[in-house]
Structure formats: structure tokens, C-alpha cells
Amino acid sequence: MEYQEYSPASDLLPFIDCYWTLRMESQPVTSSRRVIPDICADVIINLGEEVQIWNGETHQLKSEKPYLIGTMTTFQHMLLQPGTNLAGIRFKPFGLSTLVGIRQQGMANKIEELDRKTFTLDCGHFPQIGVDQDHPDHFAKINTWLLRQINDEDNSTINRLIGTLLGAQGRITVRELASQYAITERQLERKFGESLGVPLKEICNLIRFQYAYQLISNRREQSLLDIAFEAGYYDHAHLTRHFKRYAGYPPSQMG
């Protein structure tokens, strides 16, 4: 299994986490990959064999088709067979709606096939992703197209808001965030629900889980209880519940 990430153009960093590719060219047997939820949404083009994804329901990613993976609030299992060749764009929160004009209301944990010819109605045709193995910039056309969609005036507040959530590791209430940005709680919740398909409180929980996940991945002598407190959990049991919900296993099983 060969998974690689590529950085977008610097001006796209507030909106895109990375471009990525996943291939199964040399491995002769079927393989499974667990995907841990984050606060991003992905657009995936299947350039190879059919891929199966399970997230409580079974989905088939057909060859030569583009798909939208909505904001995840639970883990996924990808069943990869020889000949798998996926290319994707991982959008940060509000990146998909801002750059591509796709809102995710009702799309949490959903996988939806997109019309490749009319990828978006708001920004014009989305360029086809054709990953050239020998090209130094696999996603040059995507970079160029997305850069044309940026409107700094409209996006500055959104970028600062997400930065505040990440800076607080998700440990901030809806009331505190609304007060800080002079917006009502109802407006704030509606903005998250429409654009991300996930309530703001759930986004905060996912950010906190991701922070704890990284702490555990990199820990040395630190106990799980200490990590739970550092990540803002009440106790070890609270941390374990979140891990089972989002990752499918308790934190004690992380290597």
C-alpha cells in the first residue's frame, strides 16, 4: 500500500489540508485500511479498481467516478484490492463550500457520487484529476483552478474562527465562540450545520479527540489519565468513550 500526501499552493492552505494518493500496485492481496475521523471532507476520484468502504453502511467506489466523503464522525474501513488507485483532495472546514460551492447539510458520514461533468454549479467545471506518476506536481491543474475561487474578504472571519477552535483544542463553548465573534449562537450553529453537516459541538469534540489521539501516538512516559486531563476530558473513562466512538477501539490499544 502506497499512501502519499502533497501540499497545496500556500494560498490554499486555509482551505485544503492536503492532496493525496493511495495505490495498491505491488501488493498482490486485498488489504484493509482504517480511517480515523477528523474535521475534514474529501473529494475522491477512483482511478483504478472498485473500492469498498464500510462506515456502518457499505459503499462501493466505482472505477472512474468522483465521490464526496462528508465530514466523518466515526471511523471507516476501506477494503483495497490490487489495482486500487485513488486520488483525493482533503478540504478543511468550510473549504469545500468556500472554494467549490458544495454545502454538506445532511452529508455527515455520507458518501455520494458526484457528476464529473458538472462537479459544481457555483464555480464552473471542476478540472478532471488525472494523476501523472511522472509529473512533479500531480495536482497542478487543481491548484490553478482552486486559486481562482479565493475571496479574501469573505473568508477571513471563517479562517479566524476555525483557527480559534484549533487553538483551543476544541475546548470552547458555542456561547464563548459566538461572543468572541459577535454573532448569535443560532447563526453560528446554522453556519456549521449548513456548510459542514455537523453541529459545532461535534466539531469541538472531534478536534479534542484528534488532539488526544496525537498525544497518545507520541507519548513517552505520560499516562492515559494525564493525557485525558491535558486534552480536556473529565477522566480516563470519558477519554475511552470518545475513542471507542470515533476510532472503534479504546486508547489502551494504540501501539
UniProtKB/TrEMBL annotation:
Molecular function, one GO term: DNA-binding transcription factor activity
Top-level lineage group: Bacteria
Pfam family, one: HTH_18
Protein name: Helix-turn-helix domain-containing protein
SUPFAM superfamilies: Homeodomain-like
InterPro entries the UniProt entry points to: AraC_XylS_family_regulators, DUF6597, Homeodomain-like_sf, HTH_AraC, HTH_AraC-typ_CS
PROSITE patterns, per the entry: HTH_ARAC_FAMILY_1, HTH_ARAC_FAMILY_2
Alphabetically ordered keywords of this record: DNA-binding, Transcription, Transcription regulation
The HTH araC/xylS-type domain, residue ranges: 156-255
Organism (species): Spirosoma endbachense
